[in-house]
Structure formats: C-alpha cells, structure tokens
Amino acid sequence: MVETMVVTTSRIDTTLRTAGMRRTLPPVVRHVLNTIWYQMILLTTLSVVLGCNSSAHDGSYVLTKKERAICSSMQIDTSLIKDIRDYNANEIEPFHYSLAKKVTKDTLIEIDPIHLNGLVIQEKNSRSYELVFALKNRFMRKGYTIFLLENNFNSGNSPDYVGVLPTTDKFTVLKHIGTDGVNWDISNDSLLKIIKRFDDRYSLELIGASGEWCEFIIHKEPNDWMEFAKDVYNVCPDVVEQGAGSIEALANEYKMTRRLYLWWD
Questions:
Q1: What is the DSSP secondary-structure string of 128-143?
Q2: Cα angle at 175 between 206 and 118, to 5 degrees?
Q3: pLDDT, tens only, 196-252
C-alpha cells in the first residue's frame, strides 16, 4: 500500500518524524531562533559568502534556453536571472505556490497550486534570507519584489523557496498569495487592512509572505515596544501563545530584530 502524507506548508512548522512518531516544534519558536541566528551572522555571511559568489558570473552570465523561455512566458526582465545567478545556481521555475503538499513515496505534489507571473528559486535555509536581502533593493529599482515564500527551517534538509513577483507593492503581493488568518476569522481583505494600519505607523518592508504568515522589516520604530507588541497580539495571538510565550518576550524580540512577524495557526 502506498503511504501518503499531507504537509500543510502554510503553517510554517514542518513535520519531524522520529521512530515512527510525528512531532512538531512551534513554528514561531523556530522563527525566533532562526532570526536571532540570522541577525548575529548576517553582516559577515552576506559579505563573505555572497560576496565571494558575486564574482562567479561578473555580469556576463548567459541565460539558458529554458530560462529565456520562462522570462518570455512570465514577461519577466531577463536581467533578474543574471542578478540571481550572482548568488544562486539552483533551478529557476515559473512562480507556483501551494497551501498544502502531498507526499507519495518520493513524489511531492502540490494541492491546488497558485500560478502567477513571477519566479521561484530554491535556496538553502541558511542562505534564503541572505538571498532576499542581497537582491531586494536591486529588484525594487527594477519594479519587482523578492521575498521568502516558504521557510522549511532546514527540516530534512528541505530547501526554502524564494519568490519574485513583478510589483513593488507589498499589498499586491499579499493579495496574490492570499495570505490570511482564516482560523482566526481574518480574511485576506481583513489582513490587508491590518497591515495597512501597521504600515502607516511603522513603515513596513515586506521580506516574507505565504499562506498564513507574513514578515516585514520595521523601518519606523514604535515609541513603545510593549504597546506595539500588545497591538500585534490583539490581531495575531499565535505569535505569543505558540511562540514568544509572553507579550514582554514578544516586545523584546521585536526590539532586537526590528522585524514584524505575523503567523496564524
């Protein structure tokens, strides 16, 4: 009998199987640990790892026939491929994303995938944020947004997925992805209103979005981080109840990382 498992990727947490049992580590906890680690090594890794790779093509990369076909069909600027190749050698695909995936034997099947004009790139978990940070300003100037689409937290050595869409508007990205908090009766339209309110106050820059989570750089710091954390908790209880553990801890996390992370289980 063929064994089938459905993995809900939008929940952020990935399933670990040990001795035939399944256990999950709360995704927000994973995110916090990931963020702390990332903040500590970003400057050195970005300059050493990505800096060394940047000389690989020196702007002279020639697109493959498949890459040219993808850019033509997706109406994507071919220079983006060259930019990506400065830092990443993995296969580039037309944009696709699924809220859930079905694993049958060794085959991964997306369930009701979203297809958009854009790109998807696989990257190691240790470098996915770095890829986004290395290219986000360059892509923004060209009219595109690059963002973390799927964070697998290195579970089973699964790669992360980085998305690229032809817009500089964070709300358009969230609308196309369909980000929501449906389990908390937060529709996509409601979520956009929530993000708009936070954006007006704190000047947010999108760096990650998926089915039930989104992440932003906070460019305008709150006057009171505790009040900010309380405001976030009111619309997204899971970041405390399944993550930071307390509003005080959440406030400290936001103050340290300058990143707003929202996730609805």
A1: HHHHHHHHHHHHHHTT
A2: 75
A3: 999 999 999 999 999 999 999 999 999 999 999 999 999 999 999 998 999 999 999
pTM of the model: 0.80
Give CB contacts under 8 A, 24+ apart, made by 105-108.
105/2, 105/3
Q: Is 154 helix (H, G, I), strand (E, B) or coil?
A: coil
Other CB atoms within 10 A of residue 23 CB: 8
| CB of 242 closer than 8 Å to CB of 264 | no
Name the strand (E) or helix (H) holding 74: helix 65-74
Give residue for tokens 């069909």: 73
pLDDT in tens, 120-149: 999 999 999 999 999 999 999 999 999 999
Strand order from edge to edge, sheet including 107-111 = 4-8, 100-104, 107-111
Residue 216 burial (CB count, 10 A):
23
**Among candidates 8, 27, 15, 12, which has minimal Cα distance to 243?**
27
Residue 23: phi and psi, rounded to 5, are -140, 150
Cβ atoms of 74 and 95 within 8 Å: the answer is yes
* CB atoms near residue 215 (< 10 Å): 24
230, amino acid identity: K
